[in-house]
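call fold(seq) -> tokens
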Amino acid sequence: MSESAVIPVILSGGSGTRLWPVSRESFPKQLWPLLSEHSLLQETALRATGPRFGAPMVVCNQEHRFLIAEQLRGAAVQDARIVLEPVGRNSAPAVAAAALLVAERDPDAVMWMMAADSAIADVAALHAKLDQAVVAARAGRIVTFGMRPTAPETGYGYIEVGDALADAPGVHDLRRFVEKPDAATAATLVAGGRHLWNSGMFVFTAATMLAELETHAPDVLRAVADAVARRRQDLDFIRLDPEAFAACPNISLDYAVAERTRHAAVVPADLGWSDVGSWSALWEITPKDARGNVAIGDALLENADDCYVRSDGVLTAVVGLRDVVVVVTEDAVLAMHRDHSQDVKRVVDRLKADGRHEAVAHNRVYRPWGFYEGLIRGDRFQVKRISVTPGHKLSLQKHFHRAEHWVVVSGSALVTRDNDEVLVRENESIYLPLGCVHRLENPGRIPLTLIEVQSGAYLGEDDIVRLQDTYGRN
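ret:
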């Protein structure tokens, strides 16, 4: 890495509720391959690879740490520093933590902050605009990217563009930020030609950002500096101190710094950008058939127009409809008119109020060792499928309220049962009585798949006493 390398900083803290039922808190939209074979997180990281960039930094929810680490490895993104937020505190604290960590090595390093869940069609144009932003950032500016509007969108904030900067070609003074407008205001802004969509991407040096935080949000900087100073390394992760970080105000970078600083600048750009913030937005940027339809998965459309239909589960047929979104997962179905894409969050809020697990988690739940998914649940029993990655193992644990029966479907399982170790092969089974200390490990070279039958008076996931855990969860 050269001394002038740009440090990518990827913020991955959102839950993407407007893309429910695919995006949920336990597995949000940035971890899904919504536009290509790569997830949105992977696409974001791959835009910032090569000799001009340093190793990326990802600031994320600690519950997603293993998923993010695995996705970065899957995309061959090397040497990433993954910073774990113990609680969500919005973008200003996340950026403050990244700037403090980067400044420890080089206060003058240029940082490129971007969300993990945006789409950009023209990466070559993005890099050209980034070059312009870097020049201004080295001159002490905090530079954002303003996207040329294609419609009077009410779901985006806007930026008013000022005069061109003499010392940074292609960069303009930023006059003001405009909150997400109503339809009439948005139409006026777009027609005027001086306003751009706020992409949420920023370029700045670590020193500039820390100085502006000290001026405009000292309480944020003080709390985050304490959390960074008391951090600890955990495997490949940087854990910020929970108590100090929790004391930090919950505030966005826009409110904390960008709208207050005298050094704000904007690069006007036309990159084919989208924040992928709704099913309607996803329909707009996804290739369509001759009738304007998008069909993904086991979906069949007959005499339908301008629809988005996605099935991750059963066959889904849509007949004689126009401008609708139909999304099917294993445990939920969403059907709506595309004009109501912004209302999906209301559905999620109602599900949360009713205590429904579908609001936050999928039927398939990912763990650092693999995943499990529920198949059948009845009175005093349930059946799960468990998949363990080669070389990985579950925690050494016991249960107070349930017994378990494991049947190996493929691969081999090394099972600890109290004082014994038993190798269980394909088509073999083992019984784990209530209260026994046990552990499951995959010693082989292929994924281990088994069927688990639980029986007992209480079958909740919180009936786990971890005695030893490779992943630091006990």
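The radius of gyration is 24 Å.
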